[in-house]
Write a structure and sequence with these properties.
The complex is a heterodimer. Chain A contains 14 helices and 1 strand; from the N terminus they run H-E-H-H-H-H-H-H-H-H-H-H-H-H-H. Chain A is an all-alpha fold. In chain A, helix 5 (86-108) packs parallel to helix 9 and helix 9 packs antiparallel against helix 13 (237-250). The longest helix of chain A has 31 residues, at 127-157. Residues 1-8 of chain A have low confidence and may be disordered. A 6-stranded mixed β-sheet of chain B has the order 6-7-8-4-9-10, sandwiched between helices. A 5-stranded mixed β-sheet of chain B has the order 13-19-18-15-16, with no helix packed on it. Chain B is built from 8 helices and 19 strands. The termini of chain B are far apart. Chain B has 2 domains: 5-10 and 69-262, Rossmann fold; 272-395, Distorted Sandwich (Coagulation Factor XIII, Chain A, domain 1), CATH 2.70.50. In chain B, 23% of the residues lie in helices and 33% in strands. Classes of the chains: A mainly alpha, B alpha/beta. Chain A binds chain B through residues 3-4, 8, 10-18, 31-32, 34-35, 37-39, 42, 45-46, 49-50, 116-123, 194-195, 283-284, 286-288, and chain B through 2-3, 5, 8, 16-17, 21, 25-26, 29, 71, 93-111, 113-114, 116-117, 120-121, 123, 125-126, 130, 133-134, 137-143, 166. Strand 1 of chain A pairs antiparallel with strand 5 (103-108) of chain B, so a sheet runs across the interface.
């Protein structure tokens, strides 16, 4: 016994019942960086294998959604998008919103969808949600290209749209969106391991959330038309991200410093809360999932 | 002078909750949380039964592992053996960090990689080559390591021709070969292997065993090896531990461990006597037991010897021949294998009956089985049905190394008479 006591300092690692309070083991994640890359590659490559249109599917979905929204919300319901063409207005909102939902729904199923592989081998579990966020970022990139194409098209048509100096910070906004989706997704994925109720919630919750996130209307509009319920949108950090990104790209709507600060703080809180719960869950979720 | 301990388990325990995870879970969770807030110990840790599947426990919680301690020296090949449900897989899951122990800790001086089941994380849409990289990375290799061994891996798998074809087009054998090949070229300090030998054809198994011997003997790697296969355990391991109901019951040199496992197993379930449980107006069932011919039922059942099934039953009515016994045999997957009865071959008599039925050598392969008993009146109506009245385990007897290591396909393995005509 005593021989191992005096060398106990040299143990490489220890498996114990509980994780330390905050242990985002970055060193370990770095060791598995190749796995992260391969997961991202797998996610991108396998989705549209054995399809004729292949990666074109990435473009079809936002385009058709934008067309539908333009007809319903702008032509039928008559939502005013100012000088910006409604289609472009919707496409901007939907592209950014899609990135969030893809991150959220993808990561919220982490533990359940991967229970098979998680039950067999160990690797830092955080790799899986990270890979989802990154591969969705690439999909977002592709979808953003189509936005640029239409942007140029409308510009040449003479529509009054102009880029804003703030567009320089657009990547920051997108990363913020990804972190928010990741944090929320990790939180929910942990709860799903025990209480399946949450996976039902996600399905329609995301749809309803879209209407509270100023995707299909300018943020100012809701204050104007529904002053009593405006706070629902007002306290939704997602609405600020959508509104801000539209301001950056199309110069419509407002940019609110306090709104952004609020969004930033909420995102950080959600992310760390999600990480905390995720770390706690990953140790023994396999017994309950 | 001191031993070079690479892995040390200190009072590992693992508790599982039985039954469904449902509404009761929430109240237990809240209760647990309330105790923790007040700085008290988890109240559910104090309760819990020994993990014995066949008896009905009182608690919702069982201990799959209880107070496991062991040390592994560098370069040692430790065999972990035990019957189904003894806690082997749970122990391996804890060692490979898939799940955390409820109490206790494991300290390690080396990277642990596990071969719990080959082929995890294979993506059917990706090609063989892409899957080698993906699977290798999942098992903890870097891209550089895999690239440097890629040719060896492909060569070892013997799937060269298909390497750029999606894995979904592979036969199951080819998938297993490819998966094992990736795993075999892992280079962790500690390798955990669970029952991978029971896959692939005979030729590939030989290759796999050879590779494992290289790993453990040639390269001096530390290996933890879990298997039902006594021949493989005997030839690969240097030391072993026997698990029973979640506790270490024996530890020592591999020869002694194997003979302990095959021999002095006093808690064998191959024997059941009944008091008043089955005392009915027509009959009273006294005992059901199994044993190898010439051995007692305290001993394990070996697949390469004749197995006797003994039934002791009192028939309390005069026309005893109206009644007969029918057994249904189920395997560990719960699949019905066959039924058999004494209706055509042996009439029951009034009073005490001690009847024996025997299964030929190898008829039952190693594994766990469950018997259900039916007592039938006039070959028409079952007057008594008891599901899973006895469970028993047949062990493989340690066939010669180099012969086929796994189970043969199919439920039974009859030994027919072959002759020159």
């Amino acid at each position: 016994m005593n021989k191992s006591e005096n060398v106990s300092a040299s143990w490489l690692f220890e498996i114990t019942p509980k994780n330390k309070f905050f242990s985002l083991n970055l060193k370990e994640v770095w060791q598995y960086r190749d796995l992260l890359v391969l997961f991202v590659k797998r996610d991108i490559v396998t989705v549209y294998k054995q399809t004729v249109l292949g990666p074109l599917w990435y473009l079809i979905q936002p385009l058709f959604t934008s067309v539908t929204f333009t007809i319903i919300f702008n032509n039928v319901a008559g939502i005013d998008t100012g000088s910006v063409p409604p289609f472009l207005f919707n496409l901007a909102g939907i592209t950014v919103w899609n990135y969030f939902t893809a991150c959220l729904t993808g990561t919220s199923d982490t533990f359940r969808a991967n229970a098979g592989i998680f039950g067999k081998v160990y690797f830092p579990r955080i790799i899986t949600p990270l890979s989802i966020v990154i591969s969705n970022l690439i999909k977002f990139g592709i979808q953003f290209l189509i936005f640029i194409v239409f942007y140029i098209y409308y510009y040449l048509q003479g529509a009054v749209i102009n880029l804003n100096a703030a567009a320089f910070f657009f990547p920051v906004i997108i990363v913020l969106m990804g972190i928010l989706g990741l944090g929320l997704g990790m939180f929910i994925s942990s709860l799903v391991t025990k209480y399946r109720d949450f996976s039902n919630l996600i399905g329609f919750g995301v749809q309803l959330l879209m209407y509270l996130s100023a995707v299909v209307y300018p943020m100012a509009l809701i204050q104007d038309k529904l002053p009593n319920y405006g706070w629902l949108v007002h306290y939704n950090p997602l609405a600020y991200i959508i509104e801000t990104s539209r301001y950056m790209l199309l110069s419509v709507g407002n940019i609110s410093f306090y709104g952004l600060l609020y969004t930033f703080i909420i995102t950080i809180i959600i992310f760390f809360a999600g990480l905390l719960v995720f770390n706690k869950t990953e140790k023994s979720f396999i017994d309950t999932v | 002078m001191s031993k070079d301990i690479i892995l040390k388990a200190e009072s590992i325990s693992k508790q599982y909750r039985l039954g469904q995870v449902g509404t009761g879970t929430l109240s237990h969770d809240l209760n647990r949380w309330w105790y923790r807030i007040r700085g008290k110990e988890n109240p559910y840790l104090k309760i819990g039964d020994i993990n014995d599947r066949s008896t009905k426990g009182t608690s919702d919680y069982v201990w799959a592992l209880q107070d496991i301690n062991f040390e592994v020296e560098r370069g040692e090949v430790l065999g972990i053996i035990g019957k189904n449900g003894a806690g082997k897989s749970t122990l391996l899951k804890i060692l490979s960090k898939v799940t955390a122990p409820t109490t206790g800790s494991i300290k390690s001086r080396g990277r642990i990689a596990s071969l719990l089941e080959v082929g995890t994380g294979f993506n059917p849409e990706l090609t063989g080559r892409e899957n080698i990289f993906l699977n290798g990375a999942i098992l903890g290799m870097t891209k550089k390591e895999i690239t440097s061994k890629l040719d060896e891996i492909i060569d070892f798998s013997g799937c060269e021709r298909y390497i750029d074809t999606p894995v979904k087009r592979y036969s199951s054998g080819m998938t297993v070969r490819l998966a094992f090949a990736v795993a075999a070229f892992l280079e962790p300090e500690i390798l955990v292997i669970d029952e991978v030998l029971a896959v692939g054809d005979a030729e590939f198994q030989k290759k796999a065993i050879g590779k494992m011997q290289d790993i453990s003997k040639g390269e001096g790697r530390t290996v933890l090896f879990v298997s039902h296969n006594m021949a493989a355990v005997k030839s690969l391991c240097t030391r072993g531990i026997v698990l029973e109901h979640g506790k270490v019951v024996f530890e020592g040199e591999i020869e002694n461990v194997v003979s302990y496992y095959l021999g002095g197993d006093t808690n064998s379930m191959n024997f059941k006597t009944f008091g008043k449980e089955y005392d009915l107006p027509i009959f009273k069932l006294n005992e059901i037991s199994l044993n190898n011919l010439g051995r007692s039922s305290d001993d394990v059942l070996r697949e390469n010897e004749i197995i006797n099934l003994n039934t002791r039953i009192d028939i309390k009515v005069k026309n005893a021949q109206r009644y007969h016994l029918t057994y249904h045999l189920y395997n560990e997957m719960g699949e019905a294998m066959f039924s058999f009865s004494n209706v055509e071959s042996l009439a029951l008599k009034y009073g005490t009956n001690k009847i024996v039925c025997n299964f030929p050598i190898y008829f039952l392969q190693s594994g766990q089985y469950f018997l259900s008993l039916f007592i039938v009146e006039d070959s028409r109506q079952a007057i008594f049905i008891e599901k899973d009245i006895i469970a028993f385990t047949v062990v493989d007897s340690g066939r010669e190394l180099g012969t086929y290591m796994g189970r043969e396909p199919g439920f039974i393995r009859p030994q027919f008479i072959w002759q020159h005509s």
